[in-house]
Amino acid sequence: MNIIVCLKQVPATTEVKMNKETNTLIRENNESIINPFDTYAVEEGLCIKDEHGGKVTALSMGMPFVADLLKETIALGVDEGVLLSDRAFAGADTLATSYALSMGVKKLGQYDLIICGKQATDGDTAQVGPSLAEKLGIPHTTYVRKIEEIREGYIRCQRMTEDGYEVIEMPLPAIITVVKEINEPRLPSIKNMMRAKKAVVSILTAEDVGADIEKCGLKGSPTQVVQTFVPVHNVNSEMIEGEPEEQAKKLVEKLLSMHFEKAV
Amino acid sequence: MAEIKIVTEKCIGCKLCVSACPFSAIEVEEKKAVILDNCTLCGVCVSSCKFDAIDFQKDETQSTVDISSYNGVWVFAEQKDGVPNGVALELLGEGRKLADTLQSPLSAVLLGENVGETAKQLIAHGADNVYLVDHPSLKNFIDESYADIFAQLIETYKPEIVLLGATTYGRSLGPRVSSRISTGLTADCTKLEIDDERKILLQTRPAFGGNLMATIICPNHRPQMSTVRPKVMKAMEPDSSRLGNIITPNVKIPENLKTKVLEVVSTLTEMVNLTEADIIVSGGRGMGDPKNFALLEDLARVLGGAVGASRAAVDAGWIEYSHQVGQTGKTVGPKVYFACGISGAVQHLAGMSSSDTIIAINKNPDAPIFNIATFGIVGDVLQVIPALISEFKTQLG
Ligand SMILES: Cc1cc2nc3c(=O)[nH]c(=O)nc-3n(C[C@H](O)[C@H](O)[C@H](O)COP(=O)(O)OP(=O)(O)OC[C@H]3O[C@@H](n4cnc5c(N)ncnc54)[C@H](O)[C@@H]3O)c2cc1C
Ligand SMILES: Nc1ncnc2c1ncn2[C@@H]1O[C@H](COP(=O)(O)O)[C@@H](O)[C@H]1O
After folding, report:
1. Which residues in chain A are closer than 8 Å to B170, comparing Cβ atoms?
2. Which residue range forms the structural domain that includes residue A28?
């Protein structure tokens, strides 16, 4: 079984603090990590390989240093890392990202399953998986929490919904995006860590994958960010004092005076 | 090609842009900002600069479409067994305002089986037109067929704006459709407005786990598409005397679908769906023990609400993951949110900070949750919650 896992580099923490005077962000940690949801995608790829054999390729579009993050996945057991890196890819929105990834996937050749994370923690869009499936003309299922069965040309999986789950069957090749519930990522093994040390991640440019520059990066992105700001939580917090019974009484009174009973 | 440049004459080396950059791609050297190679051209720094010292040259993406031929606001009317979901009605309420501002019609797109009656409901909630595709194969939501039909409708009728709920289905269908017709899609918006001058849609959404808000436009492609977070927009009071057209468009129903839905299972232990609940009672590690979650269930029952949880409580195995609220769980926006024994980590806040009224119960007066709480109670959850339950019972009868 040939599996491609798509992973993205994200800032290590979204825990940005606000500089109240200047209304800007203060970031305390500049590290980059693999998008946490993508670690479940990697693990799921490895589990399928453990059971059915085959090959797992980690694919990312990003800055040259992302090659090191791809090596981290090789230390986990991934066979090969491929990085799409080119100035032309910069500033891509989800449409341009999925276009570039689709060209990368086509370059890699034959595959059975592509696994993405549910969403990336920087933008939280969850759009690249379905959009990539469309660009490749293959079916997809989002929010997969379990693969019930996978074999040549066929996958049956559970998709998480708001009130439960659905069992969905698709022919392969297909794309799934996975949620945290699906597995528990493994730790690197000594043997694979040695392999990762020596591994060379192939770095491909837009030209290498035959991508149309007009459809890449900022140029190929229909959406544009026009403004960013730090949200102000305009709350006048009110502390309610007293013994528990008193506090309960006062709180209920306040809620009822706010026409809370309408909600009830 | 697009580029960002520092206008060195204007830059005073104040470092505002350095802290604004989400990617740590700016440094100050010799009192001037320098943009590093890992810049992704996101443009966040531009608005942070108080001195106009950052010049962002975007290449205007060429319009491939005749924008003026697109007209009207569309809402995807997600439904289950003929019942439209809350966010579909909220989007009709919001869509009505946008359509009125643009002086164009508001339409709902309704796909399903035996959903004719639902169409009338959508008109009562503000739609001028309902594009109704009623077919047995559309009983369950399937990306493949829904996306195919939706794209056909957009290509035929050319709406200017398309809104979908940021639900499991909406966030799967939206990107599939926008990718097919190569237009932009802004995820999980919390605010929509029409720009007075350019008459384009301003889409505002949280990023970085809610720590940053971004306003996004889609100037040169049509339709302008967004998914919108449930519980943020307001539905209209339904008016069954409203008039509207039910249109049954001529579409090709996809046959021989590759994807099959074999089973639909509901696992929620309580009746209320977390993302649709008006009242949520959530518990964290401070509940101390799984059996204390029964208290939360009691309070939720008295109020007709749902039970939520922090990740710490879920990781401890006290409650199922489907109840988790936060960045890696569900995003909720109820009228009232009780945070019981929850410290208020930023990842938790990302999922609930848009709630109308937040009540925090925590024994630590310095817990960050109090910073965003409307009402704060410093105390032991095991004493305060039972007192609340009995007080509500007395007052609500
Ligand atoms: C990538 C990532 C994603 C994450 N996603 C999420 C997410 O989706 N949702 C989420 O919730 N978290 C998420 N987290 C975890 C988050 O950072 C916090 O660890 C978590 O929210 C803490 O849960 P808590 O508030 O229940 O526990 P704690 O932080 O341990 O807080 C317990 C609180 O209970 C109070 N307390 C203790 N006993 C009592 C008592 N008897 N009476 C009253 N108060 C009491 C304490 O004072 C304390 O404030 C994520 C973390 C990461 C790194
Ligand atoms: N630049 C990228 N390179 C590789 N995979 C990506 C990239 N961006 C997004 N993805 C994949 O798409 C998923 C959803 O990302 P997003 O739509 O950005 O929330 C991620 O979890 C990744 O699996």
Report:
1. none
2. 2-215
Among all bound ligands, the one having the nearest atom to the CA of A118 is 2
Positive or negative, the CA dihedral B215, B221, B223, B225 is negative
Question: Could you tell me how many CB contacts below 8 A there are between chain A and chain B?
Answer: 317
Q: What is the pLDDT of residues B327-349, one digit of tens each?
A: 878 888 899 999 999 999 888 98
Q: Which ligand is nearest to the Cα of residue B380, counting in written order?
A: 1
* Residue of B327, B359, B382 with the most ligand 1 atoms within 8 Å of its CB, for mutation: B327
Residue spans of the domains in chain B: they are: 3-57, 67-247, 273-396
SS3 for B323? Answer: helix
Is residue B262 scored above 80 in pLDDT?
Answer: yes
Separation in Å, CA of A222 to nearest CA in chain B = 5
Nearest CA to ligand 1 atom 48: B343
Q: Tell me how far the alpha carbon of residue B39 lies from the centroid of ligand 2, in angstroms.
A: 18
- Ligand 2 within 6 A of CB of A175: no
Task: Give A83: exposed, middle or buried? Use CB within 10 Å, 0-12, 13-18, 19+.
Answer: buried
Q: Pick from A38, A58, A66, A87: which is nearest to A211 by CA?
A: A87
CB contact under 8 A, A14 and B379: no
CA A175 – CA A178 distance, rounded (Å): 10
Q: How far apart are CA A234 and CA A16, in angstroms?
A: 18
Is A218 in Cβ contact with B59 (below 8 Å)?
yes
- CA–CA separation, A262 and B355 (whole Å): 16
Fold classification of B273-396 (topology level):
Rossmann fold (3.40.50)
| B22 touches B208 (CB < 8 A) | yes
Is pTM beyond 0.90? Reply is no
Number of alpha carbons in the 13 Å side-chain half-sphere of residue A188? 17
Report yes or no: B153 at the A interface, CB cutoff 8 Å.
Answer: no
B175 to A16: CB separation less than 8 angstroms, yes or no: no
Stronger pLDDT, B65 or A176, i.e. the higher one: A176
E strand or H helix at B130: strand B129-134
Confidence check: pLDDT of B1 > 60: no
SS3 B309: strand
- CATH number of B67-247, picked from 3.40.50.12780, 3.40.50.620, 2.60.120.820, 3.40.50.700: 3.40.50.620
Q: Least CB-CB distance to A14: which of B209, B303, B380?
A: B209
Average pLDDT over residues B268-279: 73
pLDDT at A179 over 60: yes
Q: Which atom of ligand 2 is nearest to the CA of A38?
A: 21
* Contact check, Cβ <8 Å, A163/B267: yes
Whole-number pLDDT of residue B146: 97
Contact B18, B26 (CB under 8 A): yes
